Amino acid sequence: MSAPKVDRALVLHVAKLASLSLSEAQADRLTQELSSIVAYVEQLEELDTSGAAPMAHVDLDRLPWRKDEPRPGLTHEEALDQAPKAEHGGFSVPTFVE
Amino acid sequence: MSIGVIEIADRVRRGEATAESIVDGAIARISRSDGEVHAFLHVARDEALEQARAIDAKRARGAVAGALAGVPIAIKDAICTRGIPSTAGSKILEGYVPPYDAAVIERLRAADAIVIGKTNMDEFAMGSSNENSAFGPAHNPWDLSRTPGGSSGGSAAAVAARMAPCALGSDTGGSIRQPAALTGTVGIKPTYGRVSRYGLIAFASSLDQIGPFANDVRGAARVLSVIAGHDPRDSTSLELAAGGFEAACERSVKGLRVGVPDEYFAPGIDPEVAASVRAAIGELEREGCSVRPVRLPHTRFAVATYYVLATAEASSNLARFDGVRYGLRVDEARDGEHRGRLDLRGMYGATRDVGFGPEVKRRILLGTFVLSAGYYDAYYLKAQKARSLIRGDFDAAFREVDVICSPTSPTPAFRLGERAADPLAMYLSDVYTLPASLAGIPAMSVPCAPTAAGLPVGLQIMARPLDEATMLAVASAWEARSPARSLTPKMAAT
């Protein structure tokens, strides 16, 4: 594991991937906080995991497949009811194609 | 006067009390205490009274009332309740009113339980003190200057202050057990897959599990038996009959093998907590259990493993909060260089900046980082392998013992503000609850002798996957002898 330096540029890059707009002050504080957290989790490097399989999920047996058939869902009105903006019977978003 | 889950249900079913009078009593206690405790984000007074009258009418017609007849239950605000606000403690969901009930709410309603309100929590269940609630923290009924724990702190505080006889929480890394320990209540994290998460606002899907709080083991067992069971809408929901939890509370523990891991009494533990938990284990030995040491050697890697995996999953789960379908939307910049109307990306970024609190942002960024190109193998994959080793520790230990007993939290309730400035110090306080979450095994906290200052201490009991019954038998045997049994916070005693 090559120890990455968590710097401002990395934090801003990751924030962009996560669709988070950060103020200057937030970016500074988060750079510091993430540096110490990443330094802490790097202790995993000490651990010999050569014989271990990655565990994405608890092993669950007895998991049946759900039947692939239609079932009642929300009505159109219910689905749109909590949207901050709805127009023309759909969710409204800012223009993204000129 | 406050009475427990079983007694309320028995009295309502026998017609000795009306559900309406029970709800009136709970509302009165909430009005009296919640100004100081702030356990509730929303009290569903009208809905609760309406439901209570419907149950009373049903009984009057001669129909049999359900297993939780007339029992008020406080629901963590991360669990969706139809027509009742559900914010997950976040500004980004302020005012959100779900159009459907979570599976656990459907089951509670079918058993004639009454949703009394929605409880305070760390935003999106991220935190161990309730201080990350966007609406201000809940306070510990035993000492209002202290935390009730987190993230399900409001649920725990509501039960401890006798504002509700039981509550639901969710546990991703200890969010039911730690607040139960810090408030002197019983809290159960069931086996992963036992309880449907359909309608739970997701934090880390490979870890999240819903479970009950109550003031006694049998009450918690009854709530668990109502909410457990198969649900095709949660693909991790096990197809298993969920019964016998309450009967297990009567089972003898004679001959059971109790493992005690040294790793859970490591330096840093409060000496009073260690002494109280060891005394409880000593009592179990006098009840006929055989107590022996077990080794869980990868325990010290649990915090790092958890914070990589849970944040990775959270960063993905929380991508849905984008200002389009529900919740907050910020589509105009009030200041800065982009003043005025924002484009799509700008709207996403500003909505999430304004809507999420500092801890949620930290975790989204850490999670996005460990999943990003160049770092995935070193952090995410490595942590998944570490998770296997932690699960392996338990598999090996449970070949030698039937349950494992430990402290739930290394310290009693700390003061609000004491650890808020150091996110890493807060993470380290979860060290005893994270391993069971990573392994997916059932675990619970049950009160043991309080500290000299009168702060609650929790005994954690962990069991094999799907063996909640043995865990409950041990909890119940200890509870019968626990000096904490008859204790209530002063504020709830009147």
pLDDT < 50 stretches of chain A? none
Main sheet summary of chain B: 11 strands, mixed
Mean pLDDT of chain A: 90
Largest interface: A-B, 57 and 75 residues
Read across the widest sheet of chain B, the strand sequence of neighbours is 1-3-2-4-6-5-12-13-11-7-8
Biggest sheet of chain A, strands in spatial order? 1-2
Please give the share of residues in helix of chain B.
25-40%
Shape type of chain A: flat
Radius of gyration of chain B: 22 Å
β-strand amount of chain B: 5-15%
Proportion of strand residues of chain A: under 5%
Characterization of the model:
The complex is a heterodimer of chains A (98) and B (494). By secondary structure, chain A is mainly alpha-helical. Chain A is built from three helices and two strands, in the order H-H-H-E-E. Chain A has helices at 8-17, 24-41, 76-81, and strands at 86-87, 90-91. Chain B is an alpha/beta fold. Helix content of chain B is 39%, strand content 13%. Chain B is built from 17 helices and 13 strands. In chain B, strand 2, helix 4 and strand 3 form a beta-alpha-beta unit. In chain B, helix 9 packs across helix 16 and helix 10 (302-317) crosses helix 13 (376-397). The interface between A and B is large, with 57 and 75 residues.
